[in-house]
Automatic annotation (TrEMBL):
It is an enzyme of class 1 (oxidoreductase). This is Fumarate reductase iron-sulfur subunit. It comes from Richelia intracellularis HH01. Its EC number is 1.3.5.1. One of its GO terms (molecular function) is succinate dehydrogenase (quinone) activity. PANTHER family: SUCCINATE DEHYDROGENASE [UBIQUINONE] IRON-SULFUR SUBUNIT, MITOCHONDRIAL, SUCCINATE DEHYDROGENASE IRON-SULFUR PROTEIN. It holds the Pfam family Fer4_8.
Length: 334
């Protein structure tokens, strides 16, 4: 079958341009097979990263039809099926189907599909991405773990550091201090490992400002995009639960986070993000330091057109409120 690959090409610090390549290929060919074919037979100047060809190394992440994923994981057939292409019938307009390829987002382009991943690795480094065993009580032999303890780490250990989640993360886009879904998922991996000695220190670190877990906007993109099923947002939520469980003081920020979130959803059916920032971080203007800490983020959001200046309550807000009240009553009875 014939297919057109539209590849967004770019040199460093210059405007991107889209280049089209016509290929004869099979639905079972991976996107990486097609890019290799272009490079080896049509245009040797096309730049992209790859290594294992088997979803292990994480180096071939790019945007395929607007979605960040691995070029060696996706194939032509599945991509066209997502676009609604029917292989059993001839295209009505006889048009050659197209697949678009672009570099990862949130990272500067070096050339074509090769991005500069420095901020990705720097953010990972900041969360101390290894089990820390500085304790003096070292066992004589190896550290032992029960199968139950190890099973808590299974999902997050699947991360291959491909950068797909970072590319789609809304928080990274507006807040360069935010550690990123990959780093916080790795943070949970070490935090949940009973061999790690930095449990409390990690909790405090991840609980700080908008660079840690509270910078996540819960947009869910990282969960839906991750090609390895790591679900970074779920790992961030697990850290939040630990923090909430550890703090009992009513005016602590984690407790306020939960209360403000609940009140806003009860009021408007969904979250009024302007109020959320003010009520949570500035504690209703009582915490001037907190207010100042979110000011740069607010300005960047305004500059990027991501700050909502008005708020419309969602439809069915009464039902949402009734549902939440009923759940609360049930919880009180239990
Ligand atoms: S969490 Fe998933 S998407 Fe993010 S870097 Fe790891 S494997 Fe890639
Ligand atoms: S859920 Fe949080 S960490 Fe994941 S992409 Fe959205 S903002 Fe980023
Ligand atoms: S080439 Fe290694 S993950 Fe795709």
């Amino acid at each position: 079958m014939q297919i057109i690959f539209k590849v967004l090409r770019q040199q460093q610090n210059s405007a991107p341009n889209s280049k089209e390549y016509l290929l004869d290929t099979q639905p079972s060919s991976t996107i990486l097979d097609c890019l290799n074919h272009i490079k080896w037979n049509i245009d040797g100047t096309l730049a992209f990263r790859k290594n294992c060809r088997n979803t292990i190394c994480g180096s071939c992440a790019m945007k395929i039809n607007g979605r960040s994923t691995l070029a060696c994981k996706e194939n032509v057939g599945s991509e066209l099926a997502k676009l609604g292409h029917n292989f059993s019938t001839k295209n009505v307009e006889d048009k050659i189907p197209e697949i678009t390829i672009a570099p990862l987002g949130n990272l500067p382009v070096i050339k074509d599909l090769v991005v500069d991943m420095r901020s990705f690795w720097d953010n990972l480094e900041k969360i101390v991405p290894y089990v820390n065993t500085t304790s003096e009580n070292l066992p004589d032999r190896e550290f032992l773990q029960t199968p139950q303890e190890r099973s808590k780490l299974d999902q997050v250990s699947n991360c291959i550091m491909c950068g797909a989640c970072y590319s789609e993360c809304n928080a990274v886009e507006v807040n360069p201090d935010f550690a990123g879904p990959h780093a916080l998922a790795k943070g949970y991996r070490n935090f949940a490992d009973p061999r790690d000695d930095e449990h409390q220190k990690r909790l405090e670190e991840y609980n700080t400002g908008t660079k840690g877990i509270w910078g996540c906007t819960r947009c869910h993109y990282c969960n839906s995009i991750c090609p390895m099923g790591v679900a970074p947002m779920d790992q961030i939520t697990k850290i939040k639960r630990e923090i909430l469980a550890a703090k009992t003081k009513n005016e602590s920020r984690p407790i306020r986070h939960r209360r403000v979130l609940t009140e806003l959803v009860k009021t408007g059916g969904w979250i009024d993000e302007r109020q959320f920032g003010l009520q949570l971080t500035s504690n209703y203007f009582r915490d001037i330091r907190g207010l100042l800490s979110i000011a740069p983020l607010g300005l960047r959001m305004i500059a990027k057109g991501k700050f909502p200046f008005s708020f419309e309550p969602s439809e069915g807000v009464e039902q949402v409120r009734a549902l939440m009240n009923a759940a609360q009553e049930q919880k009180d009875q239990d």
